[in-house]
Amino acid sequence: MLRIRQFFLICSGAHLPLLRRAPSELNKYAGIGATVFFTGLMAALSGGYALWTVFRNPWSTLGFAIVWGLMIFNLDRYIVSSMKKRERFSQELWMATPRILLALLIAVVISKPLELQIFDKEIRAELVIMEQQKFKTQEDRLKERFQGRTDELKGRLATLSGEIAAQSARRDTLLLLAQQEADGTGGSRVKNLGPIYKAKKADADSATAALAALQSRYAALLRDQAAQDSTVAAAVTQLERSGLDGFAARLDALGRLTGASQPIRWANWFIMLLFIAIETAPVFVKLISPRGPYDDLLEQHEYAFVVHRKERKETLELDSEDRLARRRARGGERAKQPQL
What spatial distance separates the first Cα and last Cα of the chain, rounded to whole Å? Predict the structure, then answer.
């Protein structure tokens, strides 16, 4: 247990020899160090998960997670250790503001990948919908390239269909007239196969031939349309249908979910606020905690260092002035000596 507390004290960034002289402060700084450590641990998990969704490589994911966690741990440790208690709270707050803003930024960066993991099932369902919409958009854009030719074929088929219907009706009428002329139920009312019948039969045969020509053209257009449909189908089949499972796609899916569902939006905010509270906790603990013995010892230590530095500087300046004065004195004596 003592070793664990010692480790957390190191994580807090406190000066351990001075902290041991203030035993009442040990628990406070151990708690601050534990918060810093677990924030770095969560950052490692968050960064590792974010990289895993992109590369799916366990070794690179592990390496990045360790580096990212250590970087966040070092930043938090620096933020906490660089905050010092002052005599006035306003001065402390002013000095802590940049550190609080940095802690907020770190909290947002850490929380986002973990939010993606928490809402993983909902995000996967939304990704399926996004994939379908993406494929539908790709197909629509592809079909637009062939739409002109397709519309042309459909228009010609519709025109020919109308012409075939009209020509079929005309042929049927001419055949009926020829038949009535042959059996005497119409026309001249004389049952015969004479010149009038032959003329009407020739008109009917001509109409039949014209109808066959139209039907042949219609069949050719149907073959062209089938070939066009096959070309479009083959182009659609060749479309790249890669699944959406990247980090950016998951962020987009989470944004769509939070925009469409109020409970998910509130849950998303609460998770982010939780990480912000965890990340800024060490800063606020240092900010709102009363001035303790460790702060006095640290201030005395720093003041002694400043005084020693000033004394050392003054000593060096005096030594320099003394050496310069002696050099000037030696130079004056040499000038007074008579030259032989």
Answer: 86
Residues 6 or more apart whose CB falls under 8 angstroms from that of 51 comprise 60, 61, 64, 65
Q: Which of these, 276, 277, 282, lies nearest to 105 by C-alpha position?
A: 276
Pick the most confident of 59-68, 89-98, 231-240: 59-68
User: How many Cβ atoms sit within 10 Å of the Cβ of residue 164?
Assistant: 16
- Residues 56, 62, 67, 72, CA torsion sign: positive
* Residue that has been written with the tokens 């053209």 in this structure: 217
Q: What are phi and psi of 268, to 5 degrees?
A: -60, -45
Displacement of CA 312 from its chain's centroid (Å)? 56
At 202, the amino acid letter reads: A
Residue 112 has a pLDDT of: 79
What would the pLDDT profile of 124-153 be if each residue is shown by its tens digit?
A: 888 888 888 888 887 777 777 777 777 887
In the chain, domain spans:
2-118+261-318, 125-237
Average pLDDT, the chain: 77
Give the whole-angstrom CA distance, residue 104 versus residue 83: 16
Please tell me the predicted confidence (pLDDT) of residue 340.
47
Whether residue 268 contacts residue 254, with contact meaning beta carbons closer than 8 Å, is answered with yes
Query: Are the beta carbons of 218 and 21 closer than 8 angstroms?
Result: no
pLDDT of 241 reads 67
When pLDDT is averaged across residues 12-37 and rounded to a whole number, the result is 81
HSE-CB at 154 with a 13 A cutoff on CA atoms is 7
Helix (H) / strand (E) containing 87: none
Residue with tokens 């677990």: 38
- Looking at residue 188, the DSSP 8-state letter turns out to be T
Residue 68: partners with Cβ closer than 8 Å, 6 or more residues away: 43, 44, 46, 47, 48
The model's pTM is 0.54
143-152: Cβ within 8 A, 24+ apart:
143/232, 143/236, 146/228, 146/231, 146/232, 146/235, 149/228, 150/225, 150/228, 150/232
